[in-house]
Amino acid sequence: MQRRNRLSRSKDFDTVYRRGRSTSSRYLVLHWFTRDDDDDGESRLGLAVPRSVGTAVARNRVKRLLREAWRELLPTVPSGNDYVLAARPGLAEPAETRGKDWLVAEIGEVLQKVRA
């Protein structure tokens, strides 16, 4: 994922959490906020993987898998929004055993709720 498609500042995360909306599935929570200043711009993603997901190695692996799955779904993601994808405890094991296709389907499920 390219740098212009990432949320990196804590101010941006706070804006998405405070002023945005959210939807969830068993393993993921997706927060989104429509940017007023850049409606047609590219969407940006921030990842939140808490310690309860696992060790540092497991969390970094989950983040890599989430970025990879998001990159695959990027053409279908509504533009002009900022997203924060938060992992819930228990995501590390199924993400590792079921693979990237399962993770793409999980993210697609929460993205479908955004479009509705």
**Domain tally:** 1
Within the largest sheet, what's the order of strands? 1-2-4-3
Q: Could you tell me how far the N terminus lies from the C terminus, measured between alpha carbons in angstroms?
A: 25 Å
Specify the biggest β-sheet. 4 strands, mixed
Number of strands: 4
Give the overall shape, derived from the CA principal axes. globular
The helix content, as a percent range, equals 40-55%
Q: Provide a count of the helices.
A: 4
H and E order: HEEEHEHH
Unreliable stretches, pLDDT < 50, 5 or more residues? Answer: none
- Residue-averaged pLDDT: 90
**Alpha carbon gyration radius:** 13 Å
* CATH architectural designation: 2-Layer Sandwich
Strand content: 15-25%
Find the structural class using helix and strand composition: alpha+beta
- The CATH class: Alpha Beta
CATH fold description: Ribosomal Protein S5, domain 2
What does this structure look like?
- This protein has 116 residues and is of the alpha+beta class.
- It has a single domain, classed as 2-Layer Sandwich (Ribosomal Protein S5, domain 2), CATH 3.30.230.10.
- It contains four helices and four strands, in the order H-E-E-E-H-E-H-H.
- Strands 1-2-4-3 form a four-stranded mixed β-sheet, sandwiched between helices.
- Strand 3, helix 2 and strand 4 form a beta-alpha-beta unit.
- Helix 2 packs across helix 4.
- The longest helix has 18 residues.
- The chain is globular, with a radius of gyration of 13 Å.
- The two termini are 25 Å apart.
